[in-house]
Amino acid sequence: MEILPFLLAPFVASLILTGIHAYLGVHVVERGVIFVDLALAQIAALGATVAVVAGMDPHGRAAYWISLAFTFLGAGIFAFARSSRGHIPQEAFIGIAYAVASATAILFMSKATGETEHLKDMLVGNILAVSWPEVRKTAFLYGAIGIFHILFRKKFLAISMNHQKAEQSGIRVRFWDFLFYASFGFVVTSSVAIAGVLLVFCYLIVPSVGAMLFADRIGSRLAIGWTMGTLVSALGCYLSVALDTPTGATIVVTFGGILVLMFFVHLIVHRGRSARELEGAASAHRELEAASSSTRET
């Protein structure tokens, strides 16, 4: 009970991250660009690294805007790099961007004496250090982005579910792709500053993948993803304090462990369902044979 007040702000921050990232994760998984969040997060981290090398406060306003500018650049690349003929997978551009951004950040940090700890913070973050002002600012920003996505959800979902069909229907796919990735960039830039690259990636992908094991409809997947993210966030924060381990890394590992458990539950449920379906089919077949035999005797 003594650590609960200490965990309250990090837990609320993790709930905010879960809310927006679980939703965006549905789009990312449907688009097949699984690592776009990781790439944009690393590009945002590169911008923060440039700010650090330039002598700025990594948590200051100037560093944030530089990081956001880098993220918008990445959003533009991902939106307009989609090949119309599809002979170059978009994931290839995303992977290249991630590798180049990571290597560039390492090169910059090698020239920043005494700032190498910042590189580790970019990867695993320190969500336990989040303050209430940061929580309120993040909630306001993500709320505005959420409203933006609600207003234009039909276009975003149409492109995510079937890109070619959306293009044939007259939707300006590249323009709406840029808006999607730009709004995504706002989320990623703020999230990386709070939680680090790896945790941001887990909040985006793991709840969505876990939900897909049990549901096909968007609403059901969102409900499962939000529930999973909430429970894992609470457990990860508690284990981090109880075991005295880095918070970001602890939540990432907890996400992985819970996803494995969900996979085994899925296998058990799927096998039981398959067995019932086979038994039902066999029973129907027997009834059909019995009816046919009765008809022949008549």
CATH topology: ABC transporter involved in vitamin B12 uptake, BtuC
How much helicity do the residues have? over 70%
CATH architecture: Orthogonal Bundle
- The H/E string reads HHHHHHHHHHHH
Radius of gyration: 23 Å
**Would you identify the CATH H-level superfamily?**
ABC transporter involved in vitamin B12 uptake, BtuC
- Please give the number of β-strands: 0
Mean of pLDDT: 82
Count of the separate structural domains = 1
Distance between the termini: 78 Å
Q: Enumerate the spans where pLDDT stays under 50 for 5 or more consecutive residues.
A: none
| CATH class placement | Mainly Alpha
Give the helix/strand class: mainly alpha
How is the secondary structure organized here?
Elements: H1 4-31, H2 36-53, H3 61-80, H4 90-110, H5 117-124, H6 132-151, H7 153-161, H8 163-168, H9 173-195, H10 197-212, H11 218-243, H12 247-297
Descriptive report:
By secondary structure, this protein is mostly helical. It has one domain (4-297): ABC transporter involved in vitamin B12 uptake, BtuC, CATH 1.10.3470. The protein is 83% helix and 0% strand. Helix 9 (173-195) crosses helix 10 and helix 10 packs parallel to helix 12. The radius of gyration is 23 Å and the shape is globular. 37% of the residues are buried.
